[in-house]
């Protein structure tokens, strides 16, 4: 393996920060009082050390807000997408149309940052009613780095499978939203059927099993939660996007 | 699950930064030119997105050096150790002496930061000769957070298994070093036998299999590399310490 050399690799210039055109932080607009500590909490979360948390620590609202609205979230996402694209481009694929890449939806294909920016960036407990009202608008923007990766995977003959914990009743608005955000084609859109119990991880693992039974090869799997990418079969290689706003088991 | 509430939890006051009493950064002593980008590279590394890298990007030497010698490395490690201790203290154990916790050694039980501080914090390619000369001195300090966790696990009746890619020929100096650093008792010290081929992950997975065959229950597993904590049986719960200096597959 060669040294990484220059960082970032060529061709990773950033797009205009479209999802950042949001109103400024509400509440704590200044620098976080205890930035280093919130940064370490984020380290713990992103490395799957800190699990089962329900809300962002209140003292970290400012820190997480600045992270999400600033350069860091975009840059961290770009590292993941760049690595994923390099991996995909290095694959030798048979070209029989059975190679798929799994994309989670929320905070992966689509960004709910416009919603969370008005709800304390994860400091407020999850509110299904208000979150679903947002989802039903169908206006979530793409996470730009995920969309860029999507556009690199399609020409390689890799098909896209969206696999989401969103419920089946939101299929229509999800289709509308994905297309509006720039995802124009996919092999499957797998949502959680009514009455499906258990964790997101169990649901998603089960759906990946079914894909393999159908003859698909899962060459890649991209999500913002560890529950998206753990559990066999997880895919030949998994990629973890940042998400310090919420935890799903 | 309750909210995390205050962060850090009570009782996580930091010890004096003993392993920081090193000479200042050599070479780049100032702030990194491109800190945010090196920070995102580190995110990619710590989340197992960026794999198979041989050296820290040269432009990130200053960033990684400041990270390692400053508060962040200690604080990030403390989050992991605190979470691990809380998990361990919540376990219901049968008390039959068969519950074990696996500790990796380098950058987990012991810190080689005094060595890496003189070798570019991972910017220089790995040099087995000079690294082994350092190891043979047997003076690596404990990673303080790991030692603290060790001291919390023992009274719970959890036995310690050290599992390391260090070779069997370094058993004696490793024993000396562990004791000198404050690890006074353990159930097993598993080193890599002569002629063992393959990746660290394969070796460690195989050793964990043997432990389970011997009737041990691996209740926890702590390492700085993903190859320490991936591969079934990985242990009931795994914990990933920070290490932006090198990658082992």
UniProtKB/TrEMBL annotation, chains A, B:
Pfam family name, one: Acid_phosphat_B
Coiled-coil positions: none
Record-annotated membrane-spanning stretches: none
UniProt keyword terms in alphabetical order: Glycoprotein, Signal, Storage protein
Molecular function as annotated in GO: acid phosphatase activity; nutrient reservoir activity
Stored PANTHER family: ACID PHOSPHATASE-LIKE PROTEIN (PTHR31284), VEGETATIVE STORAGE PROTEIN 1-RELATED (PTHR31284:SF19)
Protein family (similarity comment): Belongs to the APS1/VSP family.
Function per UniProt: May function as somatic storage protein during early seedling development.
Protein name according to UniProt: Acid phosphatase
Originating species: Ensete ventricosum (Abyssinian banana)
């Amino acid at each position: 393996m060669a040294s990484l050399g220059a960082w970032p690799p060529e061709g990773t210039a950033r797009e205009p920060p479209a999802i950042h055109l949001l109103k400024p932080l509400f509440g704590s607009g200044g620098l976080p009082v205890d930035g280093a500590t919130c940064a370490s909490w984020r380290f713990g979360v992103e490395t799957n050390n800190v699990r089962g948390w329900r809300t962002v620590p209140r003292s970290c609202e400012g820190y997480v807000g600045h992270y999400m609205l600033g350069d860091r979230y975009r840059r961290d996402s770009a590292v993941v997408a760049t690595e994923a694209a390099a991996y995909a481009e290095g694959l030798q694929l048979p070209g029989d149309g059975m190679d798929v890449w799994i994309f989670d939806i929320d905070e992966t294909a689509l960004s709910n940052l416009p919603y969370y920016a008005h709800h304390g960036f994860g400091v407020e407990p999850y509110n299904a009613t208000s979150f679903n009202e947002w989802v039903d608008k169908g206006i979530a923007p793409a996470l730009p780095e995920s969309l860029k990766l999507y556009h690199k995977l399609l020409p390689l003959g890799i098909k896209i499978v969206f696999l989401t914990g969103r419920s089946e009743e939101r299929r229509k608005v999800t289709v509308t939203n994905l297309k509006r955000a720039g995802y124009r084609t996919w092999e499957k859109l797998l949502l959680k059927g009514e009455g499906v119990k258990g964790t997101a991880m169990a649901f998603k693992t089960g759906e990946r099993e079914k894909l393999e039974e159908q003859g698909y090869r899962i060459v890649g799997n991209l999500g913002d939660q560890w529950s998206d990418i753990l559990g066999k079969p997880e895919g030949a290689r998994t990629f973890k996007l940042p998400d310090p706003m919420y935890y799903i088991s």
